[in-house]
Amino acid sequence: MDLIVCIKRVPQTAEAEVRVDSSGKDIVKDRLTFDMNEADTYALEAAILLKEKFGGTITAISLGVADAEDTLRIALAKGADSAVRIKAEDFGELDGFKTAALLKEVIKDIKFDAIFTGCMATDDSYYQVGPVLAEMLGVPHATLVSKVEVSEEKVRVNRELEGGLIEHLEMSLPAVFAVQTGINEPRYASLIAIRRAAGKEIKILGKEDIPVETKTNSTLEELFVPPVGKRAEILTGSADEVAARTAGIIKEKGLI
């Protein structure tokens, strides 16, 4: 099987103090550590498991600045066969749609049976890239994937839904799978594999290689740390009453 995994290098903010920078559109990153996006580690492992079972190749692709090459080398050390970095610095402001469009321009020239992405990125929580990429490529997709079984060009997929429900799907390949965390147990890269990956070539593509003019569909106006509140209101009553009160609160806050 020929597999593609889209990965992202993100700051680790779970236990760090996050401060908005002077532009108001980004966070201060000088004291943060970076690593592969959590859901992407599971996506990579899912691809490696299929490669081990069926054979084939894995191409890891990342849209990022030069430091993203360190993350790609970890993917190579774990089991990817080749890696591509799309130069994020060449393409200005990015959102989920533009990210998917740039990935599509690279992937459309690569033979693939399946594409794996994380279900979301921890830095922006868009949840958009996998589904938008699939639509642009004209292939089926599944999100929040918690199980993948492939046999005879068909794939059976479990998806996590709200309330603990699981949806069972049967899909044809090629397809895009946006993987949920917990689908497997991601492996660690051995020291020997990391050393070998350090010498592997990473293909780098910029605007001269991707001439398509791609625009964002959204604009980031401002980042801010949510204020700490002390008040919680528990809504009671029938479903209709709670829904009406919720809609009223949203209007009062000026959100619609």
Q: Can you lay out the helices and strands and say which pair or pack?
A:
Elements: E1 2-7, E2 9-11, E3 34-36, H1 38-54, E4 57-64, H2 68-78, E5 82-87, H3 96-107, E6 114-118, H4 129-137, E7 141-151, E8 154-160, E9 166-172, E10 175-179, H5 191-198, E11 203-205, H6 239-252
Parallel strand pairs: 1-4, 1-6, 4-5, 5-11, 6-10, 7-10
Antiparallel strand pairs: 2-3, 7-8, 8-9
Helix pairs in contact: 2-5, 3-4
Characteristic key phrases:
alpha/beta, Rossmann fold, nine-stranded mixed beta sheet, two-stranded antiparallel ribbon
Following the backbone from N to C, one meets helices and strands in this order, namely EEEHEHEHEHEEEEHEH
CATH homologous superfamily?
Answer: HUPs
**Average of pLDDT:** 91
Query: Could you describe the largest sheet, including whether it forms a barrel?
Result: 9 strands, mixed
Helix content: 25-40%
Taking the alpha carbons of the first and last residues, their distance comes to 47 Å
**Order of strands, widest sheet:** 9-8-7-10-6-1-4-5-11
CATH top-level class: Alpha Beta
Structural class category: alpha/beta
Count of discrete alpha- or pi-helical segments spanning 4 or more residues:
6
Number of strands: 11
Number of domains: 1
> Which fold name corresponds to the CATH topology?
Rossmann fold
Quaternary status: single chain
